[in-house]
Every structure is written in structure tokens, then in C-alpha cells.
Amino acid sequence: SQIYCHGELLRQVQMAKLYQDDKQFVDMPLSSAPDQVLRHFRELAQTHNLSIPRQELQMFVQEHFRAVGQELQPWTPEDWRDSPQFLQKILDPRLRAWAGQLHQLWKKLGKKVKPEVFSHPEQFSLIYSRHPFIVPGGRFVEFYYWDSYWVMEGLLLSEMPETVKGMLQNFLDLVQTYGHVPNGARVYYLQRSQPPLLTLMMDRYVAHTNDTTFLRDHIETLASELDFWTKNRSISVSSGGKSYILNHYEVPYGGPRPESYSKDAELAATLLEGNRDTLLAELKASAESGWDFSSRWLVGGPNPSSLSSIRTSKLVPVDLNAFLCQAEGLMSNFYSRLGNDSEAAKYRNLRAERMAALKDVLWDEDKGVWFDYDLENEKKNLEFYPSNFAPLWAGCFSDPDDVDKALKYLEDSRILTYQYGIPTSLQKTGQQWDFPNAWAPLQDLVIRGLAKSPSAKAQEVAFQLAQNWIRTNFDVYSKKSAMYEK
Fold first, then answer.
1. Where are the domains of the chain?
2. Residue 61's closest CA among 15, 30, 20?
3. Which GO terms describe its biological process (predicted)?
4. What is the pLDDT of residues 333-371, one digit of tens each?
5. Helices (H) and strands (E) in the chain, counts
6. Which residue is catalytic, options 360, 376, 378, 485?
7. Is 404 a catalytic residue?
8. CA dist list (Å): 17 to 14, 20, 125, 266, 381
9. Which pTM was predicted?
10. 88-120 pLDDT, tens per residue?
11. What whole-number distance in Å separates Cα of residue 253 and Cα of residue 232?
């Protein structure tokens, strides 16, 4: 889209900072056809010798764009019930009441796309979805890729498999249309994806419903999503005289992110012109990782505290490769279940190859955990991140002792001394995916990774970490009547 993705209209409006948040403009539907809007814009630009005054731009936007959210309508999930069974299992009456209030939120977060988006997709940045969905809330009125996995876990706990099935179908439609799952359901997110959890979403749904027909109908679409990562995000890594294929986040497109245009453009302007597109592509790769932004992607650069040094694509992330390893294992199971032994064997072999690479390239025997690998500096990034535990969560390790070693690493890093949750890192950079912030998905990576272990000590630590996180969120909710993003 020459309006929502790139072009002079987008540049002028975003650099004029008409709104506090750049995302607001690119979420506004058009009042008329895009060619008409662009023609009027060009006429206005010519009148002002290509530099339109702020007030004139404001009037232009008011005339040609509509308010955010008009293309969506509220939706109450049809499978929502008042008292799902999990509530009865919560013995503490205060915690049960809180969980009951959270269960009510599904009705507030449900959205449905209006038919006009289907009829006139060119007038919207929102991508049409056939089925209703749950949104994160706040400034995010569309659905996102990796967030939706945890949303679906919650929906299944709330006994709402039909809502999950509809959301899954939306993701599968995106893969069939675009060849991958975009970062979120907006045209300006199409250049990048997010952590690949679609296969896991299908697994959770099928485990809950036993809907093998749905799996059979869509197994090829799941395969083509994994192909996207193989074809577009693979990298060869050498270790101990051997060569391995692993994956990294990489978005081979320059230009500022439309939803953060002015920030990206201003940061790029601090660099020499020849380095700007590389920076902008790295910012997008970081957004693809879900960790936008973090010291994880700044490490090893000339200035590890500045975003201008970001180098996401130069790192081989533990979590991405654990997610893909898990997906390959699930695909093998799916194909076995459907009676396709040759495809099952193919994915079993892919998983085995990745397991070997995780061990040989990312595992650190001295520290007893996995670390991201820096391709340029040819060494591991030995900093603490909860993502270091992703292979435990994904079940992608073969030595049972790895759990105890990872537990010792958790203790040695003094992570168990943090009473309010597992910090995202131990580095204070001012970025949101760093200390002192704690994020729910990362708690899950560590807690569930430990809880699945047969080790009694690991289960005990997992329980304590879960208690800490629940207590923190309960205390905040009691004071603020809100759940915080982080």
C-alpha cells in the first residue's frame, strides 16, 4: 500500500507527528478509494512545493481518513460460559474471584471484522479475517502472531475451543494467502513474521478437541509455514569442524516501520546514509523476534546501549530454534497420526538434526544452559535471558541432566532471589525487553520448562516461580483493577 506501507504521504504525515503514537495514523481507514486520496495528496503537495504545512496535513487527514477501529465490531464468543471447570479448582476464594473476572474479559476483547473490509480491502490497513478473534487490548485492536498462542491456551482453559478454531483458521488463511503468518493482522506487518507457534497452536487445539479432520485439512498449510522459515530464515553455522543449519530473524527490507515511522527515521538519520537501510532492516528483524527491543540484539555491536547498533540478524536465537525444533517434532507426530509415514520420518529427521545443532552450537556445558550464538563474533552471548531455557519448554533436549544443570544456572544467576517474577534480562538499557521488566510469556518458558521435568527440585522451583508471578499480578490487579502487559 502506497498509503499504509511506504510513500510520500506516509512520510509527511508521520514526520509531522500529528498523533502521539505513529500507529494511530496507519490504523485509520480511508474515506474513499486510495487512488483518489493519493491524487488529492499530490495536488496538495504541489501547491506547497512538496512541503505541506502541519495544519494543512491535519485537515487533509481529517478529510480523507476515518477514526481508528471503525472497521471492527465488538463480539461476544458464542462458546463463552459463566463457570468453566478450572474456576472450581481454585481453592482460595479471592484468587477464584479474580480468575472469574479475568474469564469475563474474553467478552470485552472479542472482535469481528465488518464486511466492508472484505468488499474494499484497499481502504483499510486491517487484513480481513473470516472468523472473530481475541485482541491483546489497549492500543492493539488487531490480533498478533505469538501473543495469540497464549491467548489460545487461556481460551482452552476457559473451555472455548470453537473460538480457538476460528482464530486458528484465520492464521491458516494468512499462510495460504501470503505464504507466512505476518507479525499481526495489518498490511504494514506483512514484511515480517513473529516466533513460529502455529504448529503448537494446532497441537493444543487438537489435544483438547481430538479434531483430526481439521488437522488433516490443514496439515499442508502448517508444512508451508515451516517452509517459509526454512527458505527465508535459515543460516549455516560451523562448530567443531561441522556445519549446521539453524534459523535467525531477518527482514530483508529497508524503510522505517510504518507504525513507528518517525522514531525509526530519526534514529536512522543519526547514521551515515549507507548504513540506514541496514539499521531499519535490523529494527524489523527485532520486531519479528517479538523482543522489540532488547540488549539481546545489541550485544557485540559498537555501542551495546544504543539502538543504532542493533544487529538482530547476526544472532542465532535459542528460542526461535527451540520453537522450530518443537514444531518439527509435532509435525512428525501429526503425520504419523494421519498415516503418512514418509513425511513423519522427514520431520523426525529434521528435529534430530536441530537437536544436534542446539547441543553442539548453543549449549554451554560450563554454564549448564543454552545461549544465543553471535555469527559475526563466532561466540555465544553468555548473558542471562529467560529464552535460554526455551529448549526445556519445547522438550528439545535429550540428556535428562540438562534440567538440573539449567536449574543450577538459574540459581547461580540469582534469578530465584527476584520475588516479583523472572526479569527479562539483568541489563538496564531502558529497553522494554530488559531489566527490570518481566513478561508473562517468558515466565511460561521457564516455569513450564521446569515443571515438565521429572526432577522433584525442578518442579518445586517451578511452583515457587509460578506463585511469585500469580501473587505479583494479583496484588497489582487488586490495586489497579487491570492486568499489565509487563
1. 8-64, 258-315
2. 30
3. trehalose catabolic process
4. 999 999 999 999 999 999 999 999 999 999 999 999 999
5. 19, 10
6. 485
7. no
8. 5, 7, 19, 12, 37
9. 0.97
10. 999 999 999 999 999 999 999 999 999 999 999
11. 13
